[in-house]
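for the recovery benchmark. tokens below, seq after
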């Protein structure tokens, strides 16, 4: 849904609002991945004034979402093998370290609700594999699971880096179609990590996370 600057809280920095508006346009497919557009085009599409938009574009370029070509235009990143591999390499560095901390320190009150949520989704998937709400629920669990793992590091710099990484992951997934089989595989990989973390098996949790991320990488590479 298009959300221009005028619809956002006045206390919010306009450049921050423009940043989100550009990403929203990309994820809503009002701007195609890999597209080459002008600053004026983006201003019309997002409803953002040129000044805040210009500031937002500089941040988006630093985040790897687009490239600014002076006197020419703006090119959005296109999902591809190089972007996918480099994103998952960085993700692996962060999450394999984080899951050891998670397995060592996360309380059962933190782990058990995430396990139960996965079990409920798998139960529903088995009984209604084409239910329309399953992809959205799976995306919520994806955020819950990986967010809990990264959050266990309690490091604001890593949190910020992971938010940028999550944006690139959403771009990589733009053209990915879900299937009941892929969804089930992903949820069971999550459960493997969670159950090893619950048992305080640090090496096992790290190995399960490595297998999960390698599996996810291969699933994405197959559709490129």
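predicted aa per position
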């Amino acid at each position: 849904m298009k959300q221009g600057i005028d619809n956002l809280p006045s206390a919010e920095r306009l450049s921050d609002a423009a940043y989100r508006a550009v990403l929203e346009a990309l994820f809503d497919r009002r701007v195609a991945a890999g597209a080459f557009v002008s600053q004026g085009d983006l201003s019309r599409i997002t409803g953002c004034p040129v000044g805040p938009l210009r500031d937002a574009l500089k941040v988006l370029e630093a985040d790897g979402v687009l490239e600014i070509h002076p006197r020419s235009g703006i090119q959005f990143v296109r999902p591809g093998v190089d972007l996918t591999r480099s994103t998952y390499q960085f993700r692996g560095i962060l999450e394999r370290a984080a899951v050891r901390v998670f397995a060592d320190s996360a309380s059962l009150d933190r782990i058990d609700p995430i396990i139960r949520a996965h079990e409920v989704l798998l139960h529903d998937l088995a009984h209604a594999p084409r239910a329309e709400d399953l992809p959205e629920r799976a995306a919520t669990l994806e955020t819950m699971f990986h967010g809990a793992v990264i959050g266990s590091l309690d490091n604001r710099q890593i949190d910020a880096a992971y938010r940028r990484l999550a944006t690139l992951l959403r771009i990589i997934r733009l053209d990915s179609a879900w299937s009941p089989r892929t969804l089930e595989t992903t949820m069971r990989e999550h459960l493997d990590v969670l159950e090893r973390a619950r048992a305080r098996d640090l090496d096992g949790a790290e190995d399960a996370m490595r297998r999960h991320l390698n599996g996810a990488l291969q699933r994405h590479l197959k559709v490129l």
